[in-house]
Specification:
Layout lengths: L9 H16 L15 E2 L5 E5 L4 H6 L6 H12 L8 E4 L13 H18 L3 E5 L1 H8 L5 H4 L4 E5 L2 E8 L2 H6 L4 H9 L1 H6 L13 E2 L2 H8 L51
Parallel strand pairs: 2-3, 2-4, 4-6, 5-7
Antiparallel strand pairs: 1-3, 5-6
Length: about 270
């Protein structure tokens, strides 16, 4: 069941107003093909937020994020660190399902990403877990594939706020590549440590870290050609947009957040 929230809470009211605005606007062509908007759900004051790429079939039918097999695995992983989905916030970059689970088009990401920034602004999470390549590249503004950066927290500025971005593999990756399950569990086990890490401003510290514009995030997220990985450095300038890492071992099969198989490896590599 969706989490119960207090309708008198100002943040809840603002999120509901944003959801109504997104539903009315149908800001890109996906508004005409979706069954239901998948805005996101969870604790509106959560310290921990998960961001996937786009809804899958079951999410599109129910209007809720991560309700398929990958969602069940996500709930098991959360239980392993003493959390439930009601205590975090779960969303996707896109709020509508792309037909046949294809990758998002650049125009679709450009139209929908402002809604994600607004969600982050309202919820004010301390840690954002980006699930898979597309969400990680968008939120970090860096071209590095998820295989190289998973489990490594990064300090990034999103709008007016700095957060710890913690990239991890999408749970669907472990559904299709069982050997990745232990890696996912290991990365999850570090989450309490990441949540306890201080943020600039906690003790009036000077702000540091990379400031990433929406345009730079989009450029990195939509990268299509390969480039060698560079060491992560919060204050380093953004690298030019680069390709997904086609050597990632889990790229044989992909799905959206519900674990529904997608067309195939040449079209779908974003989770890995």
């Amino acid at each position: 069941m969706p989490p119960v929230t207090d309708p008198t809470d100002d943040v809840v009211a603002r999120l509901e107003a944003l959801k109504a605005e997104v539903e009315r606007s149908a800001c890109c062509q996906l508004g005409a093909t979706r069954s239901r908007l998948v805005f996101g759900e969870g604790d509106p004051h959560a310290d921990l937020m998960f961001v996937g790429e786009a809804p899958g079939y079951h999410e599109d039918q129910q209007g809720r994020p991560f309700v398929g097999q990958a969602g069940k695995l996500l709930e098991q992983l959360l239980a392993g660190i003493g959390l439930t989905r009601e205590r975090v916030f779960i969303a996707n970059v896109l709020k509508c399902r792309p037909p046949n689970n294809r990758d998002p088009l650049p125009a679709e990401v450009a139209a929908c990403e402002p809604h994600l920034w607004r969600q982050i602004e309202l919820i004010k999470p301390r840690v954002i877990c980006s699930l898979g390549n597309h969400a990680t590249k968008l939120l970090s503004g860096q071209p590095h594939g998820i295989t190289k950066v998973h489990g490594k927290p990064q300090l990034v500025r999103l709008g007016e706020r700095q957060v710890h971005l913690y990239p991890i593999f999408h749970p669907a990756a472990a559904l299709y590549t069982p050997s990745m399950l232990q890696t996912l569990k290991d990365d999850f086990a570090r989450l309490p440590e990441v949540l306890a890490m201080p943020l600039p401003g906690d003790d009036d510290e000077p702000a540091v870290g990379a400031t990433v514009s929406p345009e730079a995030k989009r450029s990195a997220a939509l990268a299509t050609s390969s480039a060698p990985a560079a060491p992560l450095a919060p204050a380093a300038p953004l690298a030019p947009a680069a390709p997904q890492d086609l050597a990632d071992p889990a790229g044989a099969v992909e799905s959206r957040s519900d674990g529904e198989p997608a067309p195939g490896p040449t079209e779908q590599l974003g989770l890995f």
